[in-house]
Automatic annotation (TrEMBL):
<keyword id="KW-0720">Serine protease</keyword>
<keyword id="KW-0645">Protease</keyword>
<keyword id="KW-1015">Disulfide bond</keyword>
<dbReference type="InterPro" id="IPR043504">
    <property type="entry name" value="Peptidase_S1_PA_chymotrypsin"/>
</dbReference>
<feature type="domain" description="Peptidase S1">
    <location>
        <begin position="1"/>
        <end position="220"/>
    </location>
</feature>
<dbReference type="GO" id="GO:0006508">
    <property type="term" value="P:proteolysis"/>
</dbReference>
<dbReference type="InterPro" id="IPR009003">
    <property type="entry name" value="Peptidase_S1_PA"/>
</dbReference>
<dbReference type="InterPro" id="IPR001254">
    <property type="entry name" value="Trypsin_dom"/>
</dbReference>
<dbReference type="InterPro" id="IPR001314">
    <property type="entry name" value="Peptidase_S1A"/>
</dbReference>
<dbReference type="InterPro" id="IPR018114">
    <property type="entry name" value="TRYPSIN_HIS"/>
</dbReference>
<keyword id="KW-0378">Hydrolase</keyword>
<dbReference type="Pfam" id="PF00089">
    <property type="entry name" value="Trypsin"/>
</dbReference>
<dbReference type="GO" id="GO:0004252">
    <property type="term" value="F:serine-type endopeptidase activity"/>
</dbReference>
<protein>
    <recommendedName>
        <fullName>Peptidase S1 domain-containing protein</fullName>
    </recommendedName>
</protein>
<dbReference type="InterPro" id="IPR033116">
    <property type="entry name" value="TRYPSIN_SER"/>
</dbReference>
Length: 223
């Protein structure tokens, strides 16, 4: 955010659109997170303290939250951000593929979560972009760990032994899996969890395949 520094991540899915988490744009008493004018998107940046060489910076034209988003259960935790102007793709700025609604990400698949979030619970934000390898976890297994709080629109990934996870500040960022024909697909959006990297407390992500039709509808087929 323009005045508050890094708050959330997002994923570029076309030259004009980003996907993020709806919970990133809920107003607090002091800050109007829902105001598109308060946000800036930095694309292709690896180190936060340096200039964005080779990357791109854009204003946000509008923020579209899923109408069924529930801030108490974190269900339907997805948002679309339209950029003020299209970005040009290069070695540093590339879109991720949005999976078809029929696409399945198999339990045990190794995927990657990336972000600028804190490096440990209650720690400092990362100054360099971080990535972690996490495995897709069976939803029934995950639901037992989280007392049935994992809805059909959520996906769990991590390591049940703990030690690897997304954390505060990674919200809205991507969980991507390398699939068919060596293409990266957006499997999940960092949504919630209990603490960070705790044993038997994997990360919970918005399951993107459940929203493919909504994404296409809202972006008028541009994604």
């Amino acid at each position: 955010m323009e005045r508050y520094g890094h708050v959330c991540g997002a994923t570029l899915v076309s030259s004009r659109w980003l996907i993020s988490a709806a919970h990133c744009f809920q107003d607090s008493d002091a800050i109007k997170y829902s105001d598109a004018r308060a946000w800036r998107a930095y694309l292709g940046m690896r180190v936060m303290t340096r200039g964005n060489h080779g990357g791109a910076t854009r204003l946000i034209r509008r923020i579209l939250l899923h109408p069924q988003y529930d801030q108490f259960t974190s269900d339907y935790d997805i948002a679309l951000l339209e950029l003020s102007a299209p970005v040009f793709f290069n070695d540093l700025v590339q879109p991720v593929c949005v999976p078809a609604s029929s696409h399945t990400f198999t339990t045990g698949t190794s995927c990657f979560v990336t972000g600028w979030g804190v490096l440990m619970e209650d720690g400092e934000l990362a100054s360099r972009l971080q990535e972690a390898s996490v495995k897709i976890i069976n939803r029934k297994v995950c639901n037992k760990l989280y007392d049935d709080a994992v809805t059909p629109r959520m996906l769990c990934a991590g390591n049940l032994q703990g030690g690897v996870d997304a954390c505060q500040g990674d919200s809205g960022g991507p969980l991507v899996c390398l699939e068919r024909g060596r293409r990266w697909f957006l499997a999940g959006i960092v949504s919630w969890g209990e603490g960070c990297a705790r044993q038997n407390r994997p990360g919970v992500y918005t399951q993107v395949v459940k929203f493919t039709d909504w994404i296409r509808q809202q972006t008028k087929g541009q994604v």
